[in-house]
Design a protein that fits this description.
The complex is a heterodimer of chains A (499) and B (449).
Chain A (H helix, E strand, L loop, with lengths): L15 H20 L3 H11 L6 E17 L2 E19 L2 E7 L4 H12 L33 H18 L3 E19 L4 E19 L2 E11 L11 H17 L6 E8 L6 H8 L4 H5 L20 E4 L20 E6 L2 E2 L6 H6 L8 E2 L8 E2 L3 E4 L6 H6 L3 E13 L5 E13 L2 E6 L2 E6 H4 L3 E4 L4 E2 L4 E5 L2 E9 L2 E9 L4
Helix pairs in contact in A: 2-3, 4-5
Chain B lengths: L5 H24 L4 E17 L2 E19 L2 E7 L4 H15 L33 H16 L5 E20 L4 E19 L2 E11 L8 H15 L8 E7 L1 H14 L2 H5 L20 E3 L22 E5 L2 E2 L6 H6 L14 E3 L6 H8 L2 E8 L9 E12 L2 E14 H6 L1 E4 L14 E9 L2
Parallel strand pairs in B: 7-12
Antiparallel strand pairs in B: 1-2, 1-4, 2-3, 4-5, 5-6, 7-16, 8-9, 8-11, 9-10, 12-13, 13-14, 14-16, 15-16
Helix pairs in contact in B: 1-2, 3-4
The chains are: A alpha+beta (499), B alpha+beta (449).
């Protein structure tokens, strides 16, 4: 079982200082140098973005490289490489934000963008700003380039092994699609509060999806995983092949599935990825922007009970190597471990700089953006519930009639009404404390502020997901993680077809 | 920045065509046997206001190029946001490097020359809006004001946004295709929050069009957002039951999109569709006609050629309930031993033949059942057609709306839902490229308390 504490990368403490300067050096070399931007240009740009009536200003540089490979029908049929670079310039005055971006990094283009962004504020003299130095405190992954971490022919060979592994599991496996994606994202943030910080972020992902066919019935199974690491991650512990086996297992399980039940019932959620429950039911509703605006059902409820005793939920961007982790957020703030709900009591929101300033608190390192072409906002990192003390088998045995849901597709939430859904892709009926037949996928729906008050048992088996989550908010996608122990929820609506 | 004159447009078009030429030449120089490329350049303005004040003013400006090279039947793709000559060279080189490792795939090739578009009809897609930031703010504020003033129960707002964008996209390939044209798109949307007792509800409305003059007035957009929000207040749950379901037009459009993804060539050759081997078979009742109109003037999804450069054509997808065709691009067509249908990149301006009944008549036809106005989540299994989604809407008895409902699911199977379609209303009232009225489905499982 994957445990939280398991580091995927271990850096000896003595080398940290060297590597810390390294991210900034890499950012300078890959972003500033090719565009001919000097330190003095940055001071001028930030100065021209800032005036007396501007409360905050920042510039976000990004240089991102992505390589992906797709294998289908046993043939490595597609590969692509992309480079995205640019800078986003933001000027904030009160609650107003002016924003412009440019994919040209030469000084004149950036100066023009700065002019457009600062038009939000009344005109005034350029402020004098000198960018400072803010050390990043975390070393959660190395500033490596995962695209170069494995020779291209070895990436191809890896996908072919995944394909072969899936096909040899069972003759009913008909189609296999496997893909491998490696990204290196180099970002650099300068702000008028003295921030000058860079982060070189590796991200890798492997996905497998299979179709199994039996007696005219076809079912799909999908699996995968990822991390902020190099591609060697997939070679460790047989990981890539285990994804192939898991995808086949799911497809074969679904071939046996009967109609899912419909109605309110006791639901036991498995450990790990089912933590998408937390992401939807409470996570989004605790983002600082929605709470500042009063549009979240959780607004103004700090200190109130929103979950059963024993329920503690955190958003933790500081887990080594995890998909949702960041050394710093996209505003240069180091990520942290923020307690959202403690023993059932609502404790805090997730903040970026803007919402923190407007509500008189500190950023929690949750200011994230999809790219330089998007504005940052409060976003989750890795959101999970801490372990309880129940044995997962004991939890299932306690249910007379209900549903055990272990795998999920995505979810969605209306943060104003609190209603959220998440769709099970692997589930079993529980009858008299025993697992019965697998049932077809079904959507589960609940109400964020009270679903966690109905948690009656918490397992001792906290697990994080395999590193596949992508969260969408206002059109922006960012990688995130979720996790939880096995949980028993006394009543949740299950959207099946069988009564 | 969002404004563009016609002269500018001609010049930019010519410059992007040069970039395509450069990409294709560079690919040949680096040894590719064939290549295709596309470049785009767009700019725009987005303003958001909230509670009468400006929240964000964003100036957008995006460039991008993509190139695919073929070495016989092996291919590689690269893209970048940088349009400089050096980036062109690097992108082609990166694509060629990828093609060193991809494997022979007999279907990896360009579309046949005789299928490619040679003339590019003007579909009237470009109407730049020379709007200043202050004016955009004023329009958004007026829209939001209309929503906030609509009803005292509207207590808060997520704001109103106005956005305008202008873009030029050019594509070409080494089989002689070269096409490009400018487009514009403008939109205005508003979302407000209503409260009754302790309970809040949110809803929104929007308008979008190629020409600013075709946008719905801001006041109407705001009032509609408020009306929708207020109508949700006091929502209850339902007991688990089976009942007929009427899908409001905008959510019925989602059912049409499920059909489109099920008959997409990639889903078919991957055998991951619940509509395999169904061409020529009835999948809907015989009153149903579903078609696409890619050449609609000012159409939001109009395009003279598809993503492979192949001429797009109007056609029926379903005639008298019978599935007529899959939606194929060059690759999936080859995989299925069929010719492309000019649908690389999807379907364009999808429509269903609407019936004679308006909303009230459709509610009467529903009788007693669920009127679904919102769906949540991803619970559609494309392989099996199994359908299970979160829903909100209204409970209807004897054709009359009784009360709003929420926190329920509806479930069924798309194949059975399509076959069980009873009627399509004429109440198409939402913006966008897909046109449909509401759909009445005979029976679904509703899960609630």
């Amino acid at each position: 079982m994957v445990r939280l504490s398991k580091p995927t990368l271990i850096i000896p403490p003595s080398t940290q200082t060297f590597i810390m300067t390294d991210s900034l050096a890499i950012a300078r070399d890959s972003i500033l140098a090719p565009a001919g931007l000097a330190e003095s240009d940055l001071d001028r740009l930030l100065g021209s973005l800032t005036s007396a009536s501007i409360d905050a200003a920042d510039i976000y540089f990004q240089y991102s490289r992505l390589q992906s490979w797709v294998l289908e029908d046993g043939i490595l049929k597609d590969g692509s490489f992309s480079i995205e670079q640019g800078a986003g310039l933001r000027a904030v005055s009160g609650e107003k934000t002016g924003f412009a971006y440019s994919d040209e990094l030469q000084f004149p283009a950036l100066a023009q963008a700065a002019e457009a962004a600062r038009a939000i504020a009344r005109s005034g003299q350029d402020a004098r700003v000198q960018v400072g130095k803010a050390p990043i405190e975390h070393r959660l992954y190395e500033p490596l380039n995962p695209i170069e971490s494995l020779a291209d022919q070895d990436k191809v060979a890896l996908l072919q092994r995944v394909d072969a592994e899936a096909r040899r599991q069972d003759p009913r496996v008909r189609e296999v699609v496997a893909s491998l994606v490696a990204v290196q994202d180099t970002v650099m943030v300068l702000a008028d509060d003295g921030t000058l910080a860079a982060d070189v972020r590796p991200l890798v992902r492997l996905s497998v999806s299979v179709i199994a066919e039996d007696k005219g019935r076809r079912e799909q199974g999908a699996s995968g995983g990822g991390a902020r690491a190099d591609l060697g991650y997939f070679l460790l512990e047989d990981r890539a092949l285990s994804f192939a086996r898991e995808a086949v297992r799911l497809a074969l399980t679904n071939l046996e599935a009967v109609d899912a039940p419909a109605g309110s019932m006791t639901v036991v959620l498995g450990a790990g990825w089912p933590g998408v429950l937390l992401h939807e039911a409470v996570g989004h509703g605790l983002e600082g922007d929605f709470n500042r605006k009063g549009s979240s059902v959780f607004a103004g409820r700090i200190g109130e009970r929103v979950a059963a005793k024993g329920v503690t939920v955190v958003d933790d961007g500081t887990l080594p190597g995890r998909r949702g982790s960041l050394n710093m957020d996209d505003e240069g703030t180091p990520t942290q471990n923020t307690t959202l709900i403690e023993d059932g009591i609502l404790r805090g929101y997730m903040q970026d700089k803007l919402n923190a300033r407007l509500t008189g608190c500190a950023s929690t390192g949750n200011g994230r953006r999809e790219s330089y072409a998007h504005l940052p906002m409060p976003r989750m990192t890795n959101t999970y519930m801490l372990a309880g003390n129940r044995d997962p088998e004991e939890i299932i045995a306690s249910v007379d009639k209900g549903l055990y849901a272990v795998n999920f597709g995505g979810g969605q939430v209306d943060i104003t009404s609190g209603k959220f859904v998440f769709s099970a892709s692997e589930a079993y009926v529980i009858e008299k404390g025993k697992l019965g037949r697998p049932v077809k996928g079904a959507t589960l729906i609940g109400n964020g502020p009270d679903v966690l008050t109905r948690v009656s048992m918490i397992g001792n088996d906290l697990k994080l997901d395999e590193g596949v989550g992508t969260c969408g908010k206002e059109g922006q996608s960012v990688p995130v993680g979720v996790g939880q122990p096995t949980l028993k929820i006394d009543s949740l609506t299950v959207g099946g077809t069988s009564k | 920045m969002p404004t563009a004159t016609i002269e500018d447009t001609g010049e930019r078009l010519a410059r992007l065509q040069e970039t395509i030429d450069d990409l294709l030449k560079e690919a040949k120089r680096q040894g590719a046997s064939a290549a295709e490329a596309s470049v785009g350049s767009s700019s725009g303005l987005d303003v958001t206001v909230r509670l009468g004040e400006v929240e964000t003013v964003e100036h957008t400006r995006d460039n991008g190029l993509g190139v695919t090279v073929y070495f016989g039947h092996r291919k590689g793709t690269a893209s970048t946001s940088d349009l400089s000559p050096a980036a062109v060279r690097d992108a082609v080189q990166a694509a060629c490097a990828i093609a060193q490792h991809t494997q022979e795939d007999r279907c990896a090739h360009l579309a046949a020359p005789e299928l490619l578009a040679t003339e590019i009809p003007d579909l009237d897609l470009c109407h730049p809006w020379a709007i200043e930031v202050e004016e955009a703010i004023a329009l958004a504020v007026a829209c939001e004001d209309a929503a906030r003033g609509y009803d005292p129960r509207i207590v808060n707002s997520e704001g109103a946004s106005l956005s305008t964008g202008f873009g030029i996209h050019v594509a070409g390939n080494s089989n002689g295709f070269m096409g490009g044209y400018p487009t514009t798109r403008h939109s205005l949307n508003c979302a407000v929050i209503g409260q009754e007792g302790e309970v809040m509800q949110r809803d929104y409305w929007w308008t979008t069009a190629r020409a600013a003059s075709d946008l719905e007035p801001g006041r109407a957009v705001g009032e509609r957002a408020a009306e929708r929000t207020v109508s949700r207040l006091g929502a209850r749950r339902l007991s688990t039951c089976e009942a007929p379901v009427l899908f409001r037009a905008e959510v019925a459009a989602g059912l049409l999109r499920s059909l489109v993804s099920a008959i997409n060539g990639t889903s078919i050759y991957r055998r991951s569709s619940f509509l395999l081997d169904q061409v020529g078979e009835p999948i809907f009742p015989d009153f149903v006609r579903i078609y696409e109109e890619p050449h609609l003037l000012r159409g939001l999804a109009s395009a003279p050629y598809d993503g492979d450069g192949v001429v797009t054509r109007p056609k029926d997808l379903v005639t008298a309930g019978v599935l007529q065709t899959y939606l194929l691009d060059t690759y999936s067509g080859c995989r299925l031993g069929l010719q492309t249908t000019g649908n690389a990149g999807g379907v364009r301006n999808l429509r269903i033949q609407m019936g004679a009944k308006d909303r009230q008549a459709m509610l009467r036809e529903l009788g007693t059942g669920l009127f679904v106005t919102e769906l949540m989540g991803h619970g559609v299994n494309a392989v099996t057609g199994d359908y299970s989604r979160g829903a909100a809407g209204f409970w209807v008895e004897n054709g009359e709306i009784q009360y709003p409902v929420e926190e329920i699911t509806i479930a069924g199977n798309l194949k059975e839902m399509f076959a069980g379609l009873q009627a399509v209303g004429n109440d198409c009232d939402f913006p966008g490229s897909t046109r449909t009225g509401s759909w009445l489905i005979d029976r679904m499982t509703i899960a609630g308390e």
